[in-house]
Amino acid sequence: xxxxxxxxxxxxxxxxxxxxxxxxxxxxxxxxxxxxxxxxxxxxxxxxxxxxxxxxxxxxxxxxxxxxxxxxxxxxxxxxxxxxxxxxxxxxxxxxxxxxxxxxxxxxxxxxxxxxxxxxxxxxxxxxxxxxxxxxxxxxxxxxxxxxxxxxxxxxxxxxxxxxxxxxxxxxxxxxxxxxxxxxxx
Length: 186
Prior knowledge:
By secondary structure, the chain is α+β, with helices and mostly antiparallel strands. The protein contains 2 helices and 13 strands; from the N terminus they run ααβββββββββββββ.
């Protein structure tokens, strides 16, 4: 009796049921919508996480300083290096990043960092003549930035320069202190 009753009742195939087709379509829309939503969240998240790692570790940046005509021939002049500064996610406008000593020689300009290579003290002009002097630990440098005496392990750190549209451009970089080699740092 049971086998006959089972054969008398027949179920239609699942694919022909309109509720199943609608359900499948809704599932597909939900899956596509979820993927688009996740992608929309993933892009800014990845940018947020990667932003602090981007940057020029050790790479210099060119900063416009003073007009070439304002520099007297052969006389050192201290100039501030001011530019926009980006630190991870923050952008600061017109920040003093450092300073440099500029010396004009004809149409060319030499530049040295004002940071002593010994321990990072401020280097000033020598009071007793030409050249530079670090008052913290008595390091002396000649007018060309070469080390004369004191504990500084190397000459003053030279910075690249160029003249562009009548202004002196300086490639600002920081260097590791206390080492005999000039090694850029981030």
